[in-house]
Write a structure and sequence with these properties.
The protein is mainly α and about 300 residues long. The protein has one domain. It contains twelve helices and no strands. Helix 1 crosses helix 6 and helix 3 runs parallel beside helix 5.
Length: about 300
Amino acid sequence: MAPHQVAVGAALFVPIWLLAGYTFNLSLCTSCGTGTSVSSNTVISSTTSLWALLISVLVLNEKASIPKLASVIVSCVGAALIAGQDKGESSVMGDGVCLVSAILFGLCSVLLKKFAPEEGALNMPMFFGFLGLFHTIICIPLLFLLHDLGIETYEPPSDKLLAFLTANAVFGTVLSNVLWAKAIVLTSPLIVNLGTSTSIPLSFLADYLNPHANPPHREFEYLLGAVLVTGSFVLVSLLEAAGDEAAARPCTPRLMSGACTPGGSSSPSKLSRAASLCVSPPEEVDGGDQALRGIDDVV
């Protein structure tokens, strides 16, 4: 795919990606009155798998099988067990903002799969490079505008804070997003969004280690929720792996007894019926062509 085509695709993602990231960070801003706990933020974000599945059915024409639906429901139950313990008003507001972020990230993951349906269809580093460039062009003037309006306060960061921000940008944003997008292309939006929910045990530990966070009142429900979410990811991974193996297995029609006529000659009609049970492999399409079709569909 040519660089200008990658730039067009990145430009389409900018508004949704920007709003998804803003609402996610807003749900963690305790000083803004919209903050919630790290655990609640993580488990509500894990419901992205539900929205990814629903949007995939509409956009990618995927089938919502019973095992997939069951796994998503189990994941959501685990999220509810943990998020349901936050009772404060600010926490409820933060949970709502985080839910909006989860829906938007689910939409982003499905659109990315539509844009790059297979490996090699999109240069991920270039894609995220353009995405970061567009965000920089848009957000720097927006930051000063919000500062002048009194909505946000801009303060030059200290050297120590700048070092932490740089490390977070490299490992927590750039690297994690590139791996996230690469995983979507290699697998599916559902399995990747369920996989990101496995960070719940770490967020559970973070709340315990953070002296400013409110510890959970019912540790059993927290642990049960983490087990359910992690188990749903493992189940879907096994199901998808089994499905890919079955799809890759060549189909060889077996002629039942009586399918051959006396003398060793096969009955043409029975051979045709046996051959019709096989599904021909899909025609190979160049990855760049599929990505271009994905851009047209998204537009």
